[in-house]
Amino acid sequence: MRTIELSEVTAKIKSMFIDACENIPNNVLEALAKASEQEQSPLGKQVIDKIIENDKLAREKHLPICQDTGVAVVMLTIGSEVVFHGDIYEAVNEGVRQAYTEGYLRKSVVRHPLDRVNTRDNTPAIVHIKMVPGDEFRIDVAPKGGGSENMSLVKMLIPADGVEGIKKLVLDTVFNAGGKPCPPIIVGLGIGGNLEKSAMLAKEALFREIDDSSPDPLARKLEEELLEEINRLGVGPMGFGGTKTCLAVKVNTYPCHIASLPVAINIQCHAARHKSCKL
Amino acid sequence: MIRISSPVDPQQIRQLRAGDTVLISGVIYTGRDAAHKRLCELLKRGERLPVDLNNGIIYYVGPTPAKPGRAIGSAGPTSSYRMDPYAEPLLQQGLKVMIGKGSRSQQFKQLLQQYGAVYLSAIGGAAASISETIKKCEVVTYEDLGAEAIHRLEVEDFYAIVTYDSAGNDLFEQGMEKYKK
Ligand code: SF4
Is B100 a pocket residue for ligand 1 (Cβ < 6 Å)? Predict the structure, then answer.
Protein backbone atom coordinates (compact mmCIF):
# COMPACT_ATOMS: atom_id res chain seq x y z
CA MET A 1 0.00 0.00 0.00
CA ARG A 2 1.19 3.48 -0.86
CA THR A 3 -0.28 6.53 0.85
CA ILE A 4 -0.87 9.75 -1.06
CA GLU A 5 -1.49 13.03 0.71
CA LEU A 6 -4.43 14.88 -0.78
CA SER A 7 -2.69 18.20 -0.09
CA GLU A 8 -0.06 17.05 -2.57
CA VAL A 9 -2.77 16.37 -5.16
CA THR A 10 -4.19 19.87 -4.62
CA ALA A 11 -0.77 21.50 -5.03
CA LYS A 12 -0.05 19.52 -8.19
CA ILE A 13 -3.40 20.30 -9.77
CA LYS A 14 -2.86 23.99 -9.09
CA SER A 15 0.58 24.15 -10.69
CA MET A 16 -0.41 21.91 -13.61
CA PHE A 17 -3.33 24.11 -14.67
CA ILE A 18 -1.27 27.30 -14.55
CA ASP A 19 1.50 25.55 -16.44
CA ALA A 20 -0.91 24.13 -19.02
CA CYS A 21 -2.52 27.51 -19.70
CA GLU A 22 0.82 29.27 -20.24
CA ASN A 23 3.01 26.61 -21.84
CA ILE A 24 1.86 24.81 -24.94
CA PRO A 25 3.48 21.35 -25.24
CA ASN A 26 6.58 21.24 -27.44
CA ASN A 27 5.14 18.64 -29.76
CA VAL A 28 2.11 20.87 -30.44
CA LEU A 29 4.47 23.71 -31.37
CA GLU A 30 6.36 21.33 -33.65
CA ALA A 31 3.12 20.27 -35.33
CA LEU A 32 2.21 23.94 -35.86
CA ALA A 33 5.65 24.66 -37.35
CA LYS A 34 5.24 21.76 -39.76
CA ALA A 35 1.75 22.98 -40.67
CA SER A 36 3.13 26.43 -41.41
CA GLU A 37 5.64 24.93 -43.83
CA GLN A 38 2.97 22.91 -45.60
CA GLU A 39 0.14 25.46 -45.71
CA GLN A 40 -0.50 26.58 -49.27
CA SER A 41 -2.60 29.66 -48.51
CA PRO A 42 -0.41 32.71 -47.78
CA LEU A 43 -3.01 34.11 -45.35
CA GLY A 44 -3.34 30.68 -43.73
CA LYS A 45 0.40 30.54 -43.25
CA GLN A 46 0.40 34.03 -41.77
CA VAL A 47 -2.28 32.92 -39.30
CA ILE A 48 -0.33 29.82 -38.21
CA ASP A 49 2.83 31.90 -37.79
CA LYS A 50 0.93 34.34 -35.59
CA ILE A 51 -0.32 31.45 -33.48
CA ILE A 52 3.24 30.16 -33.05
CA GLU A 53 4.45 33.67 -32.18
CA ASN A 54 1.66 33.91 -29.60
CA ASP A 55 2.47 30.57 -28.01
CA LYS A 56 6.14 31.49 -27.70
CA LEU A 57 5.33 34.91 -26.25
CA ALA A 58 2.96 33.33 -23.72
CA ARG A 59 5.71 30.99 -22.61
CA GLU A 60 8.30 33.73 -22.35
CA LYS A 61 6.12 36.21 -20.46
CA HIS A 62 4.10 33.68 -18.44
CA LEU A 63 0.76 34.68 -19.95
CA PRO A 64 -2.20 32.44 -20.78
CA ILE A 65 -2.01 31.38 -24.44
CA CYS A 66 -5.73 31.92 -24.82
CA GLN A 67 -8.20 33.97 -22.78
CA ASP A 68 -10.51 30.97 -22.63
CA THR A 69 -8.71 29.01 -19.95
CA GLY A 70 -11.55 26.56 -20.13
CA VAL A 71 -13.36 24.16 -17.92
CA ALA A 72 -10.89 22.12 -15.88
CA VAL A 73 -10.89 18.51 -17.07
CA VAL A 74 -8.97 16.13 -14.81
CA MET A 75 -8.28 12.43 -15.38
CA LEU A 76 -6.93 10.47 -12.47
CA THR A 77 -5.46 7.02 -12.93
CA ILE A 78 -5.33 5.40 -9.53
CA GLY A 79 -3.67 2.09 -8.68
CA SER A 80 -5.59 -0.24 -6.40
CA GLU A 81 -2.64 -0.26 -3.97
CA VAL A 82 -2.86 3.47 -3.40
CA VAL A 83 -4.64 4.84 -0.32
CA PHE A 84 -5.61 8.38 0.57
CA HIS A 85 -7.77 9.85 3.29
CA GLY A 86 -10.56 12.29 2.55
CA ASP A 87 -12.42 13.54 -0.49
CA ILE A 88 -10.39 13.26 -3.70
CA TYR A 89 -12.91 15.35 -5.66
CA GLU A 90 -12.63 18.17 -3.16
CA ALA A 91 -8.83 17.96 -3.29
CA VAL A 92 -8.97 18.39 -7.07
CA ASN A 93 -11.47 21.24 -6.87
CA GLU A 94 -9.33 23.04 -4.32
CA GLY A 95 -6.38 22.84 -6.72
CA VAL A 96 -8.53 24.19 -9.55
CA ARG A 97 -9.85 26.98 -7.30
CA GLN A 98 -6.31 28.03 -6.38
CA ALA A 99 -5.03 27.84 -9.96
CA TYR A 100 -7.81 29.97 -11.40
CA THR A 101 -8.02 32.56 -8.62
CA GLU A 102 -4.29 32.94 -7.87
CA GLY A 103 -2.98 32.17 -11.36
CA TYR A 104 -4.82 34.98 -13.21
CA LEU A 105 -6.90 32.52 -15.24
CA ARG A 106 -10.40 33.24 -16.48
CA LYS A 107 -13.32 31.77 -14.59
CA SER A 108 -15.68 30.32 -17.15
CA VAL A 109 -17.94 28.01 -15.15
CA VAL A 110 -21.58 28.70 -14.20
CA ARG A 111 -23.19 26.93 -11.25
CA HIS A 112 -26.28 25.80 -13.16
CA PRO A 113 -26.77 25.48 -16.92
CA LEU A 114 -30.11 27.28 -16.71
CA ASP A 115 -29.58 30.08 -14.18
CA ARG A 116 -26.00 30.68 -15.40
CA VAL A 117 -24.44 32.33 -12.36
CA ASN A 118 -20.64 32.24 -12.47
CA THR A 119 -19.04 30.24 -9.64
CA ARG A 120 -16.14 32.74 -9.68
CA ASP A 121 -13.41 30.17 -9.07
CA ASN A 122 -13.88 27.90 -12.10
CA THR A 123 -15.04 24.97 -9.97
CA PRO A 124 -16.32 22.37 -10.17
CA ALA A 125 -13.83 20.53 -12.31
CA ILE A 126 -14.88 17.62 -14.48
CA VAL A 127 -13.13 14.66 -12.88
CA HIS A 128 -12.76 11.20 -14.39
CA ILE A 129 -11.26 8.40 -12.33
CA LYS A 130 -9.83 5.21 -13.76
CA MET A 131 -8.79 2.33 -11.49
CA VAL A 132 -5.80 0.18 -12.46
CA PRO A 133 -3.81 -2.55 -10.68
CA GLY A 134 -0.57 -1.56 -8.95
CA ASP A 135 0.49 1.58 -7.08
CA GLU A 136 0.43 4.17 -9.84
CA PHE A 137 -1.12 7.60 -9.27
CA ARG A 138 -1.25 9.61 -12.46
CA ILE A 139 -2.81 13.00 -13.06
CA ASP A 140 -3.73 14.32 -16.51
CA VAL A 141 -5.20 17.79 -16.83
CA ALA A 142 -6.60 19.77 -19.74
CA PRO A 143 -8.20 23.20 -19.62
CA LYS A 144 -10.84 22.82 -22.36
CA GLY A 145 -12.18 25.89 -24.15
CA GLY A 146 -15.81 26.38 -25.07
CA GLY A 147 -15.32 27.27 -28.75
CA SER A 148 -14.06 23.87 -29.77
CA GLU A 149 -16.08 21.85 -27.25
CA ASN A 150 -19.27 23.42 -28.68
CA MET A 151 -18.48 21.93 -32.10
CA SER A 152 -18.35 18.37 -30.71
CA LEU A 153 -21.10 15.75 -30.90
CA VAL A 154 -22.21 12.17 -30.29
CA LYS A 155 -24.18 10.28 -32.88
CA MET A 156 -25.57 6.75 -32.78
CA LEU A 157 -24.82 5.37 -36.22
CA ILE A 158 -25.90 1.88 -37.29
CA PRO A 159 -23.50 -0.90 -38.31
CA ALA A 160 -24.49 -0.47 -41.99
CA ASP A 161 -23.08 3.06 -41.93
CA GLY A 162 -19.60 1.59 -41.43
CA VAL A 163 -16.34 3.43 -41.96
CA GLU A 164 -17.85 5.54 -44.74
CA GLY A 165 -20.63 6.74 -42.44
CA ILE A 166 -18.12 7.64 -39.75
CA LYS A 167 -15.98 9.56 -42.21
CA LYS A 168 -18.93 11.48 -43.58
CA LEU A 169 -19.99 12.45 -40.08
CA VAL A 170 -16.51 13.71 -39.20
CA LEU A 171 -16.04 15.61 -42.46
CA ASP A 172 -19.48 17.25 -42.20
CA THR A 173 -18.83 18.21 -38.58
CA VAL A 174 -15.45 19.78 -39.29
CA PHE A 175 -16.72 21.55 -42.40
CA ASN A 176 -19.77 22.98 -40.68
CA ALA A 177 -17.68 24.13 -37.71
CA GLY A 178 -15.52 26.18 -40.11
CA GLY A 179 -13.44 28.73 -38.22
CA LYS A 180 -15.37 28.50 -34.96
CA PRO A 181 -13.21 25.90 -33.15
CA CYS A 182 -10.00 27.83 -34.03
CA PRO A 183 -8.41 25.54 -36.63
CA PRO A 184 -5.93 24.01 -37.14
CA ILE A 185 -7.72 21.54 -34.89
CA ILE A 186 -7.14 18.10 -33.47
CA VAL A 187 -10.00 15.63 -33.81
CA GLY A 188 -10.65 13.12 -31.03
CA LEU A 189 -12.84 10.30 -32.26
CA GLY A 190 -14.49 7.73 -29.99
CA ILE A 191 -15.99 4.75 -31.80
CA GLY A 192 -17.93 1.97 -30.08
CA GLY A 193 -19.12 1.38 -26.52
CA ASN A 194 -22.45 3.10 -26.00
CA LEU A 195 -23.61 6.72 -25.77
CA GLU A 196 -21.50 7.82 -22.79
CA LYS A 197 -18.61 5.46 -23.46
CA SER A 198 -18.07 6.86 -26.95
CA ALA A 199 -17.91 10.41 -25.57
CA MET A 200 -15.36 9.28 -23.00
CA LEU A 201 -13.29 7.55 -25.70
CA ALA A 202 -13.24 10.73 -27.76
CA LYS A 203 -12.08 12.76 -24.76
CA GLU A 204 -9.40 10.19 -23.92
CA ALA A 205 -8.26 10.30 -27.54
CA LEU A 206 -7.56 14.01 -27.10
CA PHE A 207 -5.41 13.26 -24.05
CA ARG A 208 -3.06 11.27 -26.26
CA GLU A 209 0.16 12.92 -27.44
CA ILE A 210 -0.28 14.82 -30.69
CA ASP A 211 2.52 12.89 -32.41
CA ASP A 212 1.57 9.32 -31.47
CA SER A 213 -0.55 6.98 -33.58
CA SER A 214 -2.92 4.22 -32.59
CA PRO A 215 -1.41 0.76 -32.02
CA ASP A 216 -4.59 -0.73 -33.56
CA PRO A 217 -4.15 -1.01 -37.36
CA LEU A 218 -7.83 -0.32 -38.11
CA ALA A 219 -7.86 2.80 -35.96
CA ARG A 220 -4.51 3.95 -37.33
CA LYS A 221 -5.70 3.61 -40.91
CA LEU A 222 -8.74 5.72 -40.10
CA GLU A 223 -6.57 8.34 -38.37
CA GLU A 224 -4.36 8.68 -41.43
CA GLU A 225 -7.16 8.73 -43.99
CA LEU A 226 -9.30 11.16 -42.07
CA LEU A 227 -6.41 13.58 -41.54
CA GLU A 228 -5.86 13.72 -45.25
CA GLU A 229 -9.54 14.01 -46.11
CA ILE A 230 -10.16 16.77 -43.54
CA ASN A 231 -7.26 18.75 -44.96
CA ARG A 232 -8.82 18.51 -48.41
CA LEU A 233 -11.96 20.29 -47.15
CA GLY A 234 -10.28 23.67 -47.62
CA VAL A 235 -11.39 25.15 -44.27
CA GLY A 236 -7.84 26.18 -43.38
CA PRO A 237 -6.39 28.06 -40.40
CA MET A 238 -9.17 30.01 -38.62
CA GLY A 239 -11.49 29.03 -41.48
CA PHE A 240 -9.99 31.50 -43.97
CA GLY A 241 -9.29 28.74 -46.49
CA GLY A 242 -6.22 26.57 -46.73
CA THR A 243 -4.75 23.12 -46.68
CA LYS A 244 -4.08 22.79 -42.94
CA THR A 245 -7.39 22.45 -41.14
CA CYS A 246 -6.31 19.61 -38.92
CA LEU A 247 -3.05 18.74 -37.16
CA ALA A 248 -3.97 15.21 -36.06
CA VAL A 249 -6.82 12.74 -35.78
CA LYS A 250 -6.93 10.41 -32.76
CA VAL A 251 -9.19 7.36 -32.83
CA ASN A 252 -10.00 5.32 -29.71
CA THR A 253 -12.34 2.35 -29.91
CA TYR A 254 -14.23 -0.08 -27.64
CA PRO A 255 -16.43 -3.15 -28.24
CA CYS A 256 -20.10 -2.41 -28.77
CA HIS A 257 -23.58 -3.92 -29.19
CA ILE A 258 -24.32 -5.89 -32.39
CA ALA A 259 -26.96 -3.30 -33.30
CA SER A 260 -24.97 -0.09 -32.75
CA LEU A 261 -22.11 2.02 -33.97
CA PRO A 262 -21.78 4.92 -31.53
CA VAL A 263 -19.49 7.71 -32.72
CA ALA A 264 -18.35 10.69 -30.67
CA ILE A 265 -16.37 13.59 -32.09
CA ASN A 266 -14.52 15.82 -29.68
CA ILE A 267 -12.89 18.82 -31.33
CA GLN A 268 -9.74 20.36 -29.88
CA CYS A 269 -8.50 23.78 -30.99
CA HIS A 270 -4.87 24.60 -31.75
CA ALA A 271 -4.49 25.64 -28.08
CA ALA A 272 -4.09 21.96 -27.21
CA ARG A 273 -3.21 22.42 -23.55
CA HIS A 274 -2.48 19.24 -21.65
CA LYS A 275 -0.15 18.28 -18.80
CA SER A 276 0.42 15.02 -17.05
CA CYS A 277 2.43 13.86 -14.05
CA LYS A 278 2.86 10.91 -11.73
CA LEU A 279 2.86 11.22 -7.97
CA MET B 1 -1.72 46.29 -44.42
CA ILE B 2 -4.38 49.01 -44.04
CA ARG B 3 -4.37 51.37 -41.07
CA ILE B 4 -7.64 52.23 -39.37
CA SER B 5 -8.14 54.70 -36.56
CA SER B 6 -11.25 54.98 -34.46
CA PRO B 7 -13.77 56.54 -34.43
CA VAL B 8 -13.68 55.18 -37.95
CA ASP B 9 -14.18 56.95 -41.24
CA PRO B 10 -17.34 55.40 -42.75
CA GLN B 11 -15.96 55.92 -46.27
CA GLN B 12 -12.85 53.92 -45.49
CA ILE B 13 -14.90 51.15 -43.91
CA ARG B 14 -17.01 50.80 -47.07
CA GLN B 15 -13.86 50.39 -49.14
CA LEU B 16 -12.48 47.48 -47.10
CA ARG B 17 -12.63 44.13 -48.85
CA ALA B 18 -12.74 40.59 -47.48
CA GLY B 19 -9.17 39.31 -47.14
CA ASP B 20 -7.62 42.72 -46.36
CA THR B 21 -5.49 42.79 -43.23
CA VAL B 22 -5.78 45.87 -41.03
CA LEU B 23 -4.04 47.49 -38.08
CA ILE B 24 -6.39 49.36 -35.78
CA SER B 25 -5.42 52.19 -33.43
CA GLY B 26 -7.65 54.15 -31.08
CA VAL B 27 -10.59 53.25 -28.88
CA ILE B 28 -12.56 50.00 -29.09
CA TYR B 29 -15.23 48.71 -26.74
CA THR B 30 -15.55 45.15 -25.51
CA GLY B 31 -18.83 43.28 -25.26
CA ARG B 32 -20.02 39.70 -25.09
CA ASP B 33 -23.39 37.97 -24.77
CA ALA B 34 -24.56 39.43 -21.44
CA ALA B 35 -23.50 43.02 -22.20
CA HIS B 36 -25.11 42.89 -25.65
CA LYS B 37 -28.32 41.68 -24.09
CA ARG B 38 -28.38 44.63 -21.69
CA LEU B 39 -27.55 47.20 -24.37
CA CYS B 40 -30.39 45.95 -26.55
CA GLU B 41 -32.81 45.99 -23.64
CA LEU B 42 -31.94 49.66 -23.01
CA LEU B 43 -32.61 50.51 -26.64
CA LYS B 44 -35.89 48.64 -26.55
CA ARG B 45 -36.98 50.82 -23.64
CA GLY B 46 -35.94 53.89 -25.62
CA GLU B 47 -33.05 54.73 -23.28
CA ARG B 48 -29.60 56.03 -24.17
CA LEU B 49 -26.59 53.73 -24.38
CA PRO B 50 -23.82 54.10 -21.79
CA VAL B 51 -21.24 54.15 -24.64
CA ASP B 52 -21.12 56.13 -27.88
CA LEU B 53 -21.09 53.57 -30.67
CA ASN B 54 -21.34 56.04 -33.55
CA ASN B 55 -18.60 55.06 -36.02
CA GLY B 56 -17.39 52.79 -33.28
CA ILE B 57 -15.83 49.36 -32.93
CA ILE B 58 -16.92 46.48 -30.70
CA TYR B 59 -14.60 43.60 -29.90
CA TYR B 60 -16.15 40.35 -28.66
CA VAL B 61 -13.77 39.39 -25.89
CA GLY B 62 -13.72 38.22 -22.28
CA PRO B 63 -10.10 38.57 -21.16
CA THR B 64 -8.25 36.77 -18.37
CA PRO B 65 -7.50 38.91 -15.29
CA ALA B 66 -4.55 41.25 -15.89
CA LYS B 67 -1.30 40.27 -14.23
CA PRO B 68 0.39 43.04 -12.20
CA GLY B 69 1.96 45.64 -14.47
CA ARG B 70 -0.12 44.76 -17.54
CA ALA B 71 -3.02 46.74 -19.01
CA ILE B 72 -5.11 43.64 -19.64
CA GLY B 73 -4.90 39.86 -19.47
CA SER B 74 -4.86 37.58 -22.50
CA ALA B 75 -7.54 38.90 -24.81
CA GLY B 76 -8.41 36.86 -27.89
CA PRO B 77 -11.76 36.90 -29.70
CA THR B 78 -14.78 34.79 -28.80
CA SER B 79 -17.14 33.19 -31.35
CA SER B 80 -19.24 35.90 -32.92
CA TYR B 81 -22.38 34.05 -34.02
CA ARG B 82 -23.78 34.31 -30.51
CA MET B 83 -23.99 38.09 -30.96
CA ASP B 84 -25.94 37.93 -34.25
CA PRO B 85 -29.34 38.51 -32.65
CA TYR B 86 -28.09 41.80 -31.15
CA ALA B 87 -26.39 43.24 -34.23
CA GLU B 88 -29.11 45.33 -35.84
CA PRO B 89 -30.06 47.63 -32.93
CA LEU B 90 -26.36 48.46 -32.46
CA LEU B 91 -25.80 49.07 -36.17
CA GLN B 92 -28.71 51.52 -35.95
CA GLN B 93 -26.65 53.39 -33.35
CA GLY B 94 -23.85 53.83 -35.90
CA LEU B 95 -21.67 50.84 -35.00
CA LYS B 96 -19.37 50.19 -37.98
CA VAL B 97 -16.93 47.48 -37.03
CA MET B 98 -17.33 44.23 -35.10
CA ILE B 99 -14.36 42.02 -34.26
CA GLY B 100 -14.62 38.36 -33.28
CA LYS B 101 -14.03 34.94 -34.75
CA GLY B 102 -15.93 32.39 -36.82
CA SER B 103 -18.80 32.52 -39.27
CA ARG B 104 -22.11 34.33 -38.76
CA SER B 105 -25.63 34.25 -40.19
CA GLN B 106 -26.69 35.20 -43.72
CA GLN B 107 -28.97 37.80 -42.22
CA PHE B 108 -26.03 39.38 -40.42
CA LYS B 109 -24.13 39.65 -43.70
CA GLN B 110 -27.07 41.49 -45.25
CA LEU B 111 -27.14 43.91 -42.33
CA LEU B 112 -23.53 44.83 -43.03
CA GLN B 113 -24.46 45.80 -46.57
CA GLN B 114 -27.45 47.75 -45.37
CA TYR B 115 -25.48 49.71 -42.77
CA GLY B 116 -22.08 49.96 -44.51
CA ALA B 117 -20.37 48.03 -41.74
CA VAL B 118 -17.75 45.26 -41.63
CA TYR B 119 -16.95 42.16 -39.63
CA LEU B 120 -13.31 41.53 -38.81
CA SER B 121 -11.60 38.49 -37.33
CA ALA B 122 -8.86 38.54 -34.77
CA ILE B 123 -6.89 35.31 -34.54
CA GLY B 124 -8.62 32.97 -32.13
CA GLY B 125 -6.32 31.77 -29.41
CA ALA B 126 -3.59 34.36 -30.15
CA ALA B 127 -4.65 36.06 -26.96
CA ALA B 128 -1.25 36.80 -25.43
CA SER B 129 0.00 38.55 -28.60
CA ILE B 130 -3.21 40.51 -28.93
CA SER B 131 -2.90 41.76 -25.34
CA GLU B 132 0.42 43.36 -26.27
CA THR B 133 -1.41 45.74 -28.62
CA ILE B 134 -3.89 46.84 -25.94
CA LYS B 135 -2.35 49.75 -24.11
CA LYS B 136 -5.12 50.73 -21.74
CA CYS B 137 -8.24 49.06 -20.41
CA GLU B 138 -10.96 50.42 -18.15
CA VAL B 139 -14.44 49.29 -17.22
CA VAL B 140 -17.16 51.53 -18.65
CA THR B 141 -20.23 49.81 -17.30
CA TYR B 142 -21.79 46.53 -16.10
CA GLU B 143 -18.93 45.88 -13.70
CA ASP B 144 -20.99 43.10 -12.11
CA LEU B 145 -20.43 41.02 -15.26
CA GLY B 146 -16.72 40.63 -14.50
CA ALA B 147 -14.81 39.63 -17.64
CA GLU B 148 -18.04 40.26 -19.58
CA ALA B 149 -18.36 43.92 -18.47
CA ILE B 150 -18.05 46.59 -21.16
CA HIS B 151 -14.45 47.81 -21.24
CA ARG B 152 -12.96 50.73 -23.11
CA LEU B 153 -9.69 49.68 -24.72
CA GLU B 154 -7.01 51.86 -26.22
CA VAL B 155 -5.22 49.86 -28.87
CA GLU B 156 -2.20 50.35 -31.08
CA ASP B 157 -1.71 48.33 -34.25
CA PHE B 158 -4.34 45.77 -33.32
CA TYR B 159 -4.17 43.15 -36.12
CA ALA B 160 -7.38 41.91 -37.73
CA ILE B 161 -8.56 40.37 -40.99
CA VAL B 162 -11.56 41.68 -42.93
CA THR B 163 -13.91 38.70 -43.02
CA TYR B 164 -17.25 40.06 -44.26
CA ASP B 165 -17.18 43.39 -46.06
CA SER B 166 -20.01 45.81 -46.79
CA ALA B 167 -20.30 44.61 -50.39
CA GLY B 168 -21.40 41.11 -49.42
CA ASN B 169 -18.05 39.32 -49.76
CA ASP B 170 -17.27 36.51 -47.36
CA LEU B 171 -13.67 35.49 -46.77
CA PHE B 172 -14.68 32.09 -45.35
CA GLU B 173 -16.59 31.19 -48.51
CA GLN B 174 -13.93 32.56 -50.84
CA GLY B 175 -11.07 30.86 -49.01
CA MET B 176 -12.74 27.48 -48.65
CA GLU B 177 -13.79 27.48 -52.30
CA LYS B 178 -10.23 28.18 -53.36
CA TYR B 179 -8.55 25.43 -51.33
CA LYS B 180 -11.17 22.71 -51.55
CA LYS B 181 -9.81 19.67 -53.35
S1 SF4 C 1 -11.40 27.46 -29.38
FE2 SF4 C 1 -9.44 27.23 -28.26
S3 SF4 C 1 -8.02 28.74 -29.11
FE4 SF4 C 1 -10.11 29.27 -29.76
S5 SF4 C 1 -10.78 30.76 -28.24
FE6 SF4 C 1 -11.53 28.76 -27.57
S7 SF4 C 1 -9.92 27.95 -26.21
FE8 SF4 C 1 -9.04 29.66 -27.35
Answer: no
Compute the nearest-CA separation of A258 from chain B (Å): 36
User: B172 vs A58: CB contact, 8 Å cut-off?
Assistant: no
User: How many domains does chain B fold into?
Assistant: 1
Q: Does this complex have an ipTM over 0.85? A: yes
Q: Which atom of ligand 1 is nearest to the CA of A182?
A: 4
Domain-wise residue ranges, chain A: 2-20+65-144, 147-272
Q: What is the mean pLDDT of residues A226-240?
A: 97
pLDDT in tens, B42-73: 999 999 999 999 999 999 999 999 999 999 99
Residue nearest to atom 7 of ligand 1 (CA): A145
Q: What is the pLDDT of residues A107-159, one digit of tens each?
A: 999 999 998 888 999 999 999 999 999 999 999 999 999 999 999 999 999 99
Residues across chain A: 279
CATH class, domain A2-20+65-144, is alpha beta
Query: What residue type is A232 in one-letter code?
Result: R
- Nearest-CA residue for atom 2 of ligand 1: A269
pLDDT classification of A266: cutoffs 50, 70, 90: very high
8 Å CB contact of A178 and B176 = yes
Q: Which of B78, B81, B161 sits opposite A240 (nearest CB)?
A: B161
Domain that holds residue B55: 2-180
User: Nearest-CA neighbor of B21 among B135, B122, B137?
Assistant: B122
Buried (b) or exposed (e) across A119-139, using 16+ Cβ within 10 A? eebbbbbebeeeeeeeeebeb
> What is the distance in A from the centroid of ligand 1 to the CA of A181?
7
**Any chain A CB within 8 A of the CB of B67?**
yes
CATH code of residue B122: 3.20.130.10
Phi and psi, residue B27, nearest 5° = -100, 130
CB A207 within 8 A of CB B128: no
